[in-house]
Amino acid sequence: MAQENKKQGITIIDQVEQHKKVVEEIELNEEETKQQIRIYEEDFIQGLIDAAGYTKEDTQHIEIARGGKLYFAFDIRPLSEDEYDRCKKKHTKYVRNKQFGMKLPEETNSVKYRDALIYTATIEEDQKKLWDNKKVWESLRDKGLQIMNGLDVIEYCLKAGEKDKILECIDALSGYETDLEEVAKN
């Protein structure tokens, strides 16, 4: 079932199917537990394999509209923990600490980091169409903007508040809960 959450400046379309299953809790001794695991081992293995494909299967449609006019739209996907980490490392300045004999993070360029998260979460087809489009780059350069890569397009084309909302969507798709009550239940 598709449901729409309309917010100013950005439209987020959630495509969530709700499957309600009845779960019954039972207590088993150690031997019964081992037997249940053996019986359902193939289901567990298939579940793990299916769960590993989350970054390709889960997507969310984002529309950027201002003043009632749709400017552009793209789809995002969840990010893995490794992708978050790579974006953070790439946009963090490190300094060698002589006292400890190792490099320590000094400062993260949060603007580029946020842009990198949006870029990485954008599905490949939309990356090519929007952020890596050479025609877009040339048009923005003609307006006097410095465009070196897709991150610069994101920087100049999205407002700070729009980025915040997109990052919230990326975090939600990636499994980061913002509702502490829901996290506490699980």
Strand fraction: 15-25%
Tell me the radius of gyration: 22 Å
CATH class call: Alpha Beta
* Helix and strand element order: EEHHHEEHEEHHHHHH
- The coarse silhouette is extended
Q: Low-confidence runs (pLDDT<50, min 5 residues)?
A: 1-8
The total count of strands amounts to 6
What's the short story on this structure?
The chain is α+β, with helices and mostly antiparallel strands and 186 residues long. It has ten helices and six strands; from the N terminus they run ββαααββαββαααααα.
Describe the structure.
This protein has ten helices and six strands. The chain is an alpha+beta fold. It has one domain (about 1-15, about 30-185): rbstp2171 (2-Layer Sandwich), CATH 3.30.2220.30. A four-stranded antiparallel beta sheet has the order 1-2-3-4, covered by helices on one side. The chain starts with a strand and ends with a helix. The model is unreliable at about 1-10 (pLDDT under 50).
What's the SSE blueprint?
Layout: E1 2-7, E2 10-15, H1 30-39, H2 41-51, H3 54-57, E3 60-66, E4 69-76, H4 81-90, E5 92-97, E6 102-108, H5 110-121, H6 124-131, H7 134-142, H8 150-157, H9 160-173, H10 180-185
Antiparallel strand pairs: 1-2, 2-3, 3-4, 5-6
